[in-house]
Specification:
Largest sheet: 2 strands, antiparallel
Shape: globular
Strand order of the largest sheet: 1-2
Structural class: mainly alpha
Helix content: 55-70%
Bound molecules: benzoyl coenzyme A
Number of helices: 13
Strand content: under 5%
């Protein structure tokens, strides 16, 4: 999708005050920064880290739902889930392509995921125990992703912003299919309603954690906001998500598992309980319920795909030679 001509490009710029001020002036004027434009090394690194982690999240995120493709309850549900999981793989590809414009190769990025040096979203380290989890993921996880990603469509870096526009359109379909599953279960038998409530109980807090640490603990937010990569802080987006989602749970007749949740008329917003940050950091650092399984599955897929990569490279070399 984007030029790969920047791989290996010289990226060190003389970052004197005049250079940084001129760059900031472009950001403040809401100009888009494009791959070949001069940019501070810090900006390039911040974007590369975030876009690569985002790409990894999309790809690892195929695993929890992929677990249910063969067990979807109807043909219609199976077709929709298959399409959704395939979309996530596509999102990973757009994002790896956007990351490549910043001077890293796909191989480097994938290696960083597989050797554990790059992160991916904490949410995908939780298991999908029942069919209702597929509904909860679409509703809550894709819902949280949309809340986080809509502002990224206005990110200052052109390739990331443009990739996000298409991704957000697809995420919107994902969120609806999840909410529709939850609606069916919530209006179904007592057993189905219990299954929906159980999925909400297990996915509520991990979904809030997707927005990252609280603003006071976020290391990248200040730079990210200054350079208009992020347009809202982690806590601002988390609050927007809670405010949008609690009425949806009410509509389903399900109870959000937070005894401290209440409407605050003065703030025109919901107050909610404290997130278990110990759990968040445990999962981020590799010790969540499924971290090891997820990495094992990715490494196995990478090994099994070697012959495809080799065949594609041989085919490309043949075509080049013929031309
Ligand atoms: N999980 O300074 P902070 C999807 C890390 S996939 C793990 O606030 P930042 C879907 C953070 O990386 C959607 N790590 O960072 C797919 C940093 O560590 P490093 C995924 C987390 O970047 C399939 C440290 O904590 N969405 O929708 O300013 C099926 C300090 O954090 C997490 C994106 O990737 C976390 N939750 O803000 C269904 C969105 N949170 O890098 C659905 C793009 C924080 O210094 N990313 N960390 O080692 C972002 O918007 C931002 O990167 C974040 C974090 C809000 C996530």
């Amino acid at each position: 999708m984007y030029s790969q001509g920047l791989i290996g490009a010289k990226t060190d710029t003389t970052e004197d005050e005049a250079f940084l001020a001129a760059f900031q002036a472009r950001i403040d004027a809401d100009e888009k920064i494009e791959p070949r434009d001069p940019m501070p090394e810090g900006y390039r690194k911040l974007l590369l880290r975030q876009i690569a982690q985002h790409a990894h999240s999309e790809v690892v995120g195929m695993l929890p739902e992929g677990n249910w493709i063969t067990r979807a309850p109807t043909l219609r549900r199976k077709a929709a889930l298959l399409a959704k999981v395939q979309d996530e793989g596509g999102h990973g590809l757009y994002l790896y392509a956007a990351a490549e414009t910043l001077g890293a190769s796909r191989e480097q990025l994938v290696d960083q995921l597989l050797d554990g040096t790059a992160k991916y979203s904490s949410i995908f380290n939780y298991p999908t125990l029942t069919w209702a989890d597929v509904g909860a993921i679409g509703w809550l996880v894709d819902g949280a992703a949309i809340m986080n990603q809509i502002p990224l469509c206005r990110c200052s870096y052109g390739p990331y912003a443009r990739a996000m526009i298409r991704i957000c359109k697809e995420e919107s379909f994902h969120q609806r299919q999840g909410y529709e599953i939850m609606t069916t279960l919530a209006q179904g038998s007592e057993g189905q309603r219990r299954m929906a409530q159980d999925a909400l109980n297990r996915f509520w807090w991990p979904s809030l954690m997707m927005f990252g640490p609280s603003d006071s603990a976020s290391v990248h937010s200040d730079c990210s906001m200054k350079w208009k990569v992020k347009r809202f802080t982690n806590d601002e987006l988390r609050q927007k998500f809670v405010d949008a989602t609690v009425p949806q749970a009410d509509y389903l007749g399900l109870k959000v598992p937070d005894p401290d949740l209440r409407w605050n008329p003065e703030r025109n917003s919901y107050d909610f309980g404290e997130i278990d940050w110990d759990e968040f950091w445990r999962v981020v650092k590799g010790n969540g319920p499924c971290n090891r399984d997820r990495m094992k599955a990715r490494r196995r897929a990478h090994e099994n795909g070697l012959w495809v990569r080799e065949a594609a490279a041989a085919h490309a070399a043949k075509r080049k030679a013929a031309a």
